[in-house]
Amino acid sequence: QTVVTQEPSFSVSPGGTVTLTCGLSSGSVSTDLYPSWCQQTPGQAPRTLIYNTNTRSSGVPDRFSGSILGNKAALTITGAQADDESDYYCVLYMTRGHWVFGGGTKLTVL
Amino acid sequence: HLVESGGGLVQPGGSLRLSCAASGVIFRSYWMSWVRQAPGKGLEWVANIILDGSERYYVDSVKGRFTISRDNAKNSLYLQMNNLGVDDTAVYYCVTVASGYYFDNWGQGTPVTVPS
Predict the structure, then answer these.
(1) Residues of A at the B interface, defined by Cβ within 8 angstroms
(2) Element (H, E) at B58
């Protein structure tokens, strides 16, 4: 069974930079898995920030960026702001018609 | 704009049919999925259906119990859920799948509760 791994929690200071990662229990994350990143604030529906590894969705600030770092997908927030405090989910397209979400990272900005 | 409906309280072993009405999107041009979130837990992809409904995919935990379907003439997506269990308690989101295999538009979700 494929498990997508994320840090359960992370903390960043306002104005700081943080990189969240997304790995696989077995194997590497590559662009072939079309990694995307979703943001969810409490009580709200998720929204997709980054897709196809590094493409920002419309309206997403450029302080959010995606990449592949080693064998993982990564979401970097440069110049974190208070309203970036959210849960962040990685999602991988594993095979035709199937996706797997990571467990999510709770980001605290303080 | 996606609006889900049909959620509610159902006893274990019962059934529910969720609906999702799409507007402002060319519904027939999108693969569609259902994603759920159990209380206090993360997101879980549940089911997907391609443009014409000829291919349907499910997470293992719902295979044989859930059926995804669509009506392109009505711009609507459905999820028939049978033999529901406690572990199916979640908010169910209707989502469009954009080219590039990512979840583009999200509804606000409809809650399903199966009490223990």
Answers:
(1) 34, 36, 38, 40, 45-48, 51-52, 55, 57, 87, 89, 91, 93, 96-104
(2) strand B56-58
What letter would DSSP give residue A57?
Answer: P
Tell whether B51 is within 8 A of chain A (Cβ). Answer: no
pLDDT tens per residue across span B4-54: 999 999 999 999 999 999 998 899 999 999 999 999 999 999 999 999 999
Q: How far apart are CA B24 and CA A44, in angstroms?
A: 20
Tokens 């995919």 belong to residue: B57
Backbone angles phi and psi of B86, in degrees to 5: -55, -35
The percentage of chain B sitting over the pLDDT mark of 70, rounded to a whole number, equals 100
pLDDT digits 0-9 by tens, A1-11: 789 999 999 99
Cβ count within 10 A of residue A2: 12
Contact A45 B109 (CB under 8 A): yes
Distance from CA of A87 to the nearest CA of B (A): 9
Contacts of A90 in chain B (CB under 8 A): none
CB A89 within 8 A of CB B42: yes
CA angle A85, B100, A10 (to 5 degrees): 20
